[in-house]
Amino acid sequence: MTPAIEAAFAATLQRIAAPGWTGDFSAPQPVVGPQFDPLAELPPPDQWSDLQHELLGELRQIKPKHKLAVLTMMCNDAPYIAEFIAHHLAIGVERIFVYTNNNTDSSLAVLRWFEANGLVTVLPMATAGGIHLQRKNYHHALFLLPELRLYDWVGVIDSDEFLTPDARYNHHLPTMLDAAPADAEAIVFPWHWRLGPVTFEPTPGLLAERFSHANHWDHGKSVMRMRHVCSLFMLHYPLFFGAFPLYDTLFNRIVRDQGRPDRNCTGAGGWTEHFWTKSFAEFVVKKRRGEVPGLGGETAFLRQYETYFEWNQPCTPANRAPWPAAVLQRTREWLARFAMRPGYAALREKWEADFAANTQATSADPELRKIFADMQARLPS
User: Fold this and answer.
1) Which of 5-9, 37-41, 164-168, 215-219 is predicted least confidently?
2) What percent of the chain has pLDDT over 90?
3) Which among 44, 108, 224, 338 has the fewest CB atoms less than 10 Å away?
4) How many CA atoms lie within 13 A of 318 on its CB side?
5) 332: how many CB neighbours lie within 10 A of its CB?
6) Run of H or E including 230
7) What is the pLDDT averaged over residues 165-194?
8) Kind of pairing between the strands at 270-274 and 151-156
9) For strand 95-100 and strand 120-124, is the pairing parallel, antiparallel, or unpaired?
């Protein structure tokens, strides 16, 4: 690790050693700047410095005071932020930690509103580019975000992913976690790849209403305890100090398949509902986000137009998977609570107007229209 990161490790160690430290959820978090870019390539523990080992040892001693948090990243996600937050509050999440960068829409203002209302911790991020942003941010959270340790369980997901426990747990994630085996350190929620009609413009409504079909993909995301985690390099699930078992959502032990535990797990007890495709206009926003200057080098986020069609599938009776009515109702109740708080209505009007203007500009682009028509004919989903 670099001198700047070692200095940050030392400062964090000093902070959590202070008498009475309980975490600070009120003060704005400093920018996670380019000096932390090397965290994207975290070496194995046998190459850590003594200070790094000492810091993680102390972090592992922090006693959780709350049950459940979510760790995520957001960029130009303004139209979906409120639903994402409402959904996760509806399933029992208590706080959402959000790394965010390079927004050109009103995402940061939306996140700041939720932060001011005590539901979100915003972690602004900047980079020199050419790194894997998720690995940087997740490893920053692992070592330099001790507030995350005040939550017993943490779901690590993307902004277009919604954790959804099954009805057997009353669609309530804390209830599910209370039922987990005593030695469970991570539960893998397989992907439900959400499907909807292939359209150029977005259709109205919540994501949960727009996409009523889904297929099981052999990827997933994890809800984990942080106490034994030594790396989040794999992104979808943690690496531990020691041989701790992973479980699926029915609490079956998962057999690792060449390092990919999500190939051998069921989603019968809960899914990661993944809204990847959406409309073509929304896909264009996602594609352009991966092409932002200064973020180059992350081939995982550079998408070709073909993927919109190749990664979609037709909606059929066999893959119909309606959203759980109870979860949708509870999500709507949270959205209604947001609407009653000062400043929310004006903020929603702003992001809806921005989204409409952006969609109209995309729709009026003849080149994009031609790409959509040509590929829809050549690569029918």
Assistant:
1) 215-219
2) 71
3) 44
4) 4
5) 15
6) strand 229-231
7) 96
8) unpaired
9) parallel
Question: Could you tell me the residue ranges of all domains in the chain?
Answer: 22-378
Amino acid at 286: K
Which amino acid does the sequence have at 188? V
85-89, 99-103, 305-309: least confidently modelled range: 305-309
Listing DSSP states for 248-269 in one string gives -TT-PBPPPSTT-GGGG---TT
Pairing, β 239-240 against β 229-231? antiparallel
Residue from 73, 372, 82, 43 nearest 230 by CA? 43
CA 288 to chain centre: 19
Residue found by looking up tokens 């359209």 in the block: 199
262 contacts 190 by C-beta, under 8 angstroms: yes
> pTM here?
0.95
Residue 310 banded pLDDT, cuts 50, 70, 90: confident
- At a CB cut-off of 8 Å and minimum separation 6, what does 68 contact? 92, 93, 94, 151, 152, 153, 154, 155, 173, 174, 177, 223
The answer to whether the beta carbons of residues 62 and 23 sit under 8 Å apart is no
DSSP reduced 3-state for 43 = coil
Amino acid making up residue 373: A
Highest-confidence segment of 81-95, 186-200, 310-324, 366-380: 81-95
Torsion of CA 298, 304, 307, 308, to 10 degrees: 110
